[in-house]
Design goal:
Blueprint lengths: L3 E6 L4 E8 L7 E2 L27 E4 L4 E4 L2 E2 H7 L2 H10 L5 H12 L21 H15 L9 H27 L12 H10 L10 H13 L7 H10 L5 H12 L7 H12 L5 H9 L18 H17 L5 H15 L1 H5 L6 H11 L7 H22 L28
Antiparallel strand pairs: 1-2, 2-3, 4-5, 5-6
Catalytic activity: oxaloacetate + acetyl-CoA + H2O = citrate + CoA + H(+)
Pathway: Carbohydrate metabolism; tricarboxylic acid cycle; isocitrate from oxaloacetate: step 1/2
Keywords: Acyltransferase, Transferase, Tricarboxylic acid cycle
């Protein structure tokens, strides 16, 4: 039987039946598209109770601490899969066969080079420019170099653009780091895995061969997987909104990168390291945590707007964090001991347990990236690299939807009512 919600208005004189749309997981959704018949519209700042689209890509249940990519629990993918296989899954909806996986990987790795003229863009940036500033500009500029894949209504063009973005974003990200550090750009090596190649472009020098550490490569690959998508967050919604206007995919991804830059979104793991620097040492942790309780200090990397239980990505990242620290012999490093003390208190103190302020994925990923030698300003760039496949999957899903409409939120106007213009010499 079809579910409906009956809305009464106009002091009960009128009513409107709103259909209820079923979901495969999670709560059903009230379709309010006919609500405009009432002469009113809904008010929902932050879109906390509003579904802006229908999607088959990612499902989150914050109360139960669940995150599924195309139905697969994130814990299983992080443990058994790798990032490029997850990319295939997010884009195509199913896990690849061995043949499909090999072909997909080969295609991605054969397009890692960027147009040589693109490298000259970096000379226009100051050496101390934030890497995210460079990412926004250079990724947006891709549309000036790859003009043969800009017809968004052409399925083959969309496919080519998706491959180009997944392939070239790591190269651009590494170039942002190298330029910022005053180091020469390093060309990709297609004989390496996707993640090992990125680390090669980041950390190798022309002076000697670079041999990626498999433990560290695996750790970074898991970070990529855990950050590949997260439903309709701010940056994904930005990509969809930009794409709804018909903007080209490179411009849409640049818009997503710009949104991700915000400290309330992709900058959260960067804020964790800044907080650790502010605390300074383990002996100052108790006083800091008391300050958190008194609301004079802000605890970064704990709790999550969506997850009211343990972030499922955090439990995976916690294990990876300890593996990396053990591999690098950093168990007794002062900063990491400080971080582990914060973790211990948060997991044992009733104040944090009752408020469900568990360590989230940003807490652990920031520590891991720091241990890998990735500087703090690059943390959000790593996030953008990983999230590109999620953004482009949502963009493609939206463009392929025949019911797509340009995004146009309404507003509640609370400004001045109509008034007439008064010449300057008559204004009091």
């Amino acid at each position: 039987m079809e579910k409906k919600v009956t809305l009464t208005y106009n002091e009960g004189k009128d009513s409107l039946e709103l259909p209820v749309l079923p979901s495969t997981l999670g709560p059903d959704v009230v379709d309010i598209r006919s609500f405009s018949k009432t002469g009113m519209f809904t008010f929902d700042p932050g879109f906390l109770a509003t579904s802006s689209c229908e999607s088959k890509i990612t499902y989150i249940d914050g109360d139960l601490g669940q995150l599924y990519y195309r139905g697969y629990p994130i814990e299983q993918l992080a443990e058994q899969s790798d990032y490029l296989e997850v990319c295939y899954l997010l884009i195509n909806g199913e896990l690849p066969t061995a043949q499909q996986s090999a072909e997909f990987n080969r295609t991605v790795m054969s397009h890692t080079m960027v147009h040589e003229q693109l490298t000259r863009f970096f000379n226009g940036f100051r050496r101390d420019a934030h890497p995210m500033a460079m990412m926004v500009g250079v990724v947006g500029a891709l549309s000036a170099f790859y003009q043969d894949s800009l017809d968004i209504n052409n399925e083959e063009h969309r496919k080519v653009a998706m491959f180009r973005l997944i392939s070239k974003i790591p190269t651009i990200a590494a170039m942002c780091y190298r330029y910022n550090q005053g180091l020469p750009f390093v060309y990709p090596r297609n004989d390496l895995s996707y993640t090992a190649n990125f680390m090669h472009m980041m950390f190798s020098t022309p002076c000697e061969p670079y041999v990626p550490n498999p433990v560290l490569v695996r750790a970074l690959d898991v970070i990529f997987t855990l950050h590949a998508d997260h439903e309709q967050n701010a940056s994904t919604s930005t990509v969809r909104l930009a794409g709804s206007s018909g903007a080209n995919p490179f411009a849409c991804i640049a818009a997503g990168i710009a949104c991700l830059w915000g400290p309330s979104h992709g900058g959260a793991n960067e804020a964790v390291l800044l907080m650790l620097d502010e605390i300074g040492s383990v002996d100052k942790v108790p006083a800091f945590m008391e300050g958190v309780k008194a609301k004079t200090h802000k605890l970064m990397g704990f709790g999550h707007r969506v997850y009211k239980n343990m972030d499922p990505r955090a439990s995976v990242m916690r294990r990876i964090c300890y593996e990396v620290l053990n591999e690098l012999g950093l168990q007794n490093d002062p900063k990491f001991k400080l971080a582990m003390e914060l973790e211990r208190i948060a997991l044992e103190d009733s104040y944090f347990i009752e408020r469900k302020l568990y360590p989230n994925v940003d807490f652990y990923s920031g520590i891991v990236q720091s241990a890998l030698g990735i500087p703090v300003p690059m943390f959000t760039v790593i996030f953008a690299l990983a999230r590109t496949v999620g953004w482009i999957s949502h963009w493609n899903e939206m463009i392929a939807d025949p019911g797509m409409k340009i995004g146009r939120p309404r507003q509640q106007y609370t400004g001045a009512t109509k008034r007439d213009y008064v010449p300057a010499d008559q204004r009091g």
